[in-house]
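Re: [ENG-882] Designed sequences occasionally contain unexpected residues at chain ends

Forwarding the minimal case from QA. Structure tokens:
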């Protein structure tokens, strides 16, 4: 059964707005986000070098008021950002410390962002996990993200191997 991200359920985590003192933790979490994608694609080059810079760039782009952190025992264990384009809202990114995954922190962050998006007048709240990120898709699906809009299809001119198969509209795709 699909859980509703608007329901509030008890959690060990506190979610609050980003503060400057969270920067180092969020940089570390951004590295984990990239490392996760390197792992699922078996590609150590994803994200390039100087990974921590990406968090700073993202923060400068969306602003500190659009980032929330999940806290346990005074430590940051996850964060999520909210990108806003008119009435289109997108969660980007969301990452939980690998040592704290599967304990409800991610769900708590998403619930907060759903509430913020509703409050700010969103028409849609979007998430854009890569198709290879099956765990993230299951996570979002559990939290009520059950509508699919645009699908990004592409021709790959690189030497990457796309071994996995997905069927949609009776057509086969590699992901
Ligand atoms: C995706 C992510 C943010 C989820 O955070 P989390 O704190 O581990 O998730 P939660 O514990 O709140 O899980 C909520 C529900 O999602 C589902 N879920 C979470 N992780 C899952 C997994 N690996 N496989 C299947 N379902 C999963 C479960 O139904 C879970 O509820 P349950 O534990 O009561 O069954 C975290 O795994 C992560 O940081 N992944 C790496 C970064 C990433 O992929 N980010 C998304 C990119 S778009």
């Amino acid at each position: 059964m699909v859980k509703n991200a608007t329901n509030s359920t008890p959690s060990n985590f506190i979610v609050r707005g980003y503060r400057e003192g969270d920067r180092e933790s969020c940089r570390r979490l951004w590295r984990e986000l990239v490392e996760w994608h390197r792992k699922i694609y078996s590609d150590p080059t994803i994200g390039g070098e100087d990974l921590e810079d990406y968090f700073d760039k993202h923060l400068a782009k969306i602003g500190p008021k659009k980032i929330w952190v999940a806290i346990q025992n005074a430590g940051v264990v996850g964060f999520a950002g909210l990108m806003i384009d008119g009435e289109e809202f997108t969660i980007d990114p969301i990452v939980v410390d690998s040592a704290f995954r599967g304990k409800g922190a991610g769900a708590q962050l998403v619930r907060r962002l759903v509430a913020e998006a509703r409050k700010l007048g969103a028409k849609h709240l979007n998430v854009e996990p890569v198709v290879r990120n099956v765990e993230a898709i299951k996570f979002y699906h559990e939290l009520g993200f059950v509508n699919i809009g645009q699908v990004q299809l592409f021709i790959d001119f690189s030497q990457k191997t796309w071994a996995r198969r997905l069927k949609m509209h009776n057509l086969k795709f590699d992901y």
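QA comment: On inspection the terminal residues look reasonable. The chain has four helices and seven strands. Proposing we downgrade this to a documentation issue.
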